[in-house]
Design goal:
single chain, alpha+beta, Uridine Diphospho-n-acetylenolpyruvylglucosamine Reductase, domain 3, Alpha-Beta Plaits, 3 domains, 7-stranded antiparallel β-sheet, 6-stranded antiparallel β-sheet, 31% helix
Length: 503
């Protein structure tokens, strides 16, 4: 197994997309197998050496940034072992290592007629990292987050013991006892506390719902309870087609009303003919987001057509076409829905071929890139929310956003996964003096989301820079309960120190 000890050669593992400064490590190891990881952790645990698990550096919470000790880089654990069909359940599956990128997995399964549903924006991320944060993305409105698509896990605990877990086989007992079967034939018992989960997708801490499946505990744990070394994910047959579109609205209220109608239609039962309007993705862009796209350099947005001059909000949608469905009829359903809300056809972009769909996706993703570049030029940190609430809480949270942003009184941009009530509010401070106030308003928004039954982190996780948000989500007793779970699984505290909980 390769191990690098020259700091000049592993500096890239001391940083990630969060920009968290000060990362340092004594060495970086590059395991290739579960046995390699077990050996590394067994030795590290005996020596009390901190171990930070490193994916591809795309995370924005500082989770892979080490502050001493050993980095366990998963980039050489990049094998795809098998793609096939479960003859009992008729589900497709893929068995892979954690260092496979999302893009490579999707390409590999597509070649065999399958599709992996989770759709995090950054396709260069490692699959293991998407499990570590329970990542989601635009299509989670229809398909749910990563957790819903994991059938089986292989995990190495801090002790170096390997555990093989299949969904449905190991659950926490009513008294909080969790008995895990080790690969060597022995078992280990752990005592955990139960915590009710938010009624929405969630990436803030451990999944401790009463009676939880052991597989779910290791999804979203940000490398603090064990190292995922192999995963079996669920696949669905590749769709017959996909089309997408962008609808421009004169007011944000019009866009939100249309979104609510689309959500209702998408959740309605399939009618006669089988050509039901069914959004797989629903995204929102506010007026400032559109202004940012208008001022992007030619070609940066991936779309040449000018935006309607009166547009003050927009929504992006996507629908999958299944075998036996009439794509033209589905498209007509969408156009009728758009026009019924007073939006003319010329205020809608449609994409039915792959090239145009990719252009629309690139156009939508350009907003975050433009914001990041603006803040980088000013030397200012990114201050953006990752909040989500159940449907019953969205109107209240939206009103709170408007009140708080009026109080902010400076620029901001709102965009994100409106289908999940999961919008990213990006504060755009003028100077460093504005940053503390933006951070305080962010925390106020987070507290309101929790009050409304939601989460402080719907997809990005907590990492090392969002500890205050976990405190808001759980309160002192909840954080203490999660710390006890951490202590049960990692008594020496070697795994990913600083993730979830302050050092």
């Amino acid at each position: 197994m390769l191990k690098e000890t020259d700091p000049q050669r592993f500096q890239r593992f001391c940083e990630d997309a969060s920009g968290l400064p000060g990362g340092r490590a004594d060495a970086v190891a590059f395991p290739q197998t579960t046995a390699d990881v077990a050996d590394l952790l067994r030795e590290a645990n005996a020596r009390r050496t901190p171990v930070t698990i490193a994916g591809n550096g795309t995370g924005i919470t500082g989770a892979r940034v080490p502050f001493g000790g050993l980095v366990l880089a998963t980039e050489r654990m990049d094998r795809i072992f098998d793609i096939g069909i479960d003859l009992q359940t008729r589900e497709g599956y893929a068995i892979v290592q954690p260092g496979v990128t999302l893009a490579d997995l999707k390409d590999a399964v597509a070649k065999q007629g399958w599709h992996y549903m989770p759709d995090p924006t950054e396709t260069s991320c490692f699959l293991g990292a998407t499990l570590a944060t329970n990542a989601s993305g635009a299509r989670s409105f229809h398909w749910g987050p990563t957790r819903a698509h994991v059938r089986e896990l292989e995990v190495v605990l801090a002790s170096g013991d390997a555990v093989h877990l299949r969904r449905g086989q190991v659950q926490a007992a009513p008294d909080g006892t969790l008995t895990l079967p080790l690969a060597n034939g022995e078992t280990r018992r752990f005592q955990v506390s139960f915590l009710k989960q938010p009624a929405t997708k969630n990436a803030a801490g451990y999944y401790l719902e009463p009676g939880f499946d052991a597989v779910d505990l290791f999804i979203g744990q940000e490398g603090t309870l064990g190292v995922i070394t192999q995963v079996e994910v669920r696949l669905v047959p590749a769709p017959a087609g996909v089309f997408s579109g962008v609808v421009f609205f004169p007011r944000d209220s019009s866009a939100l009303e249309w979104v609510q109608s689309i959500k209702s239609k998408s959740r309605a039962p399939q009618g006669a003919g089988g050509n039901k309007l069914q959004a797989t993705a629903l995204e929102y862009l506010d007026a400032r987001s559109l202004d940012i796209l208008r001022t992007a350099a030619p070609g940066e947005g991936g779309r040449a057509a000018p935006l309607p001059s009166q547009a003050r909000a927009a929504t992006y949608f996507e629908q999958t076409v299944h075998a036996g469905q009439d794509e033209d009829a589905l498209l007509q359903n969408w156009l009728e829905s758009i026009e019924s809300h007073g939006i003319p056809a010329e205020h809608c972009w449609m994409a039915q071929d792959l090239r145009t769909r990719v252009q629309l996706q690139e156009w939508r993703h350009q907003i975050a890139a433009q914001i990041n570049e603006r803040l980088r030029r000013k030397g200012l940190p990114k201050i953006g929310t990752d909040l989500a609430v159940p449907d019953t809480g969205f109107a209240g949270l939206w009103a709170f956003y408007q009140k708080t942003l009026a109080e902010w009184g400076k620029e901001y941009a709102i965009f994100g996964h409106i289908g999940d009530n999961h919008l990213h509010i990006h504060f755009l401070p003028d100077s460093a003096e504005d940053v503390p106030r933006a951070q305080a308003l962010h925390l106020a928004m987070a507290a309101e989301a929790v009050r409304l039954g939601g989460t402080v982190s719907a997809e990005h996780g907590i990492g090392k820079i969002k500890h205050a948000l976990l405190d808001i989500q759980l309160g002192p007793d909840g954080v203490a309960a999660m710390r006890r779970v951490k202590k049960e699984f990692d008594p020496n505290g070697i795994l990913s120190p600083g993730n979830l909980f302050p050092l």
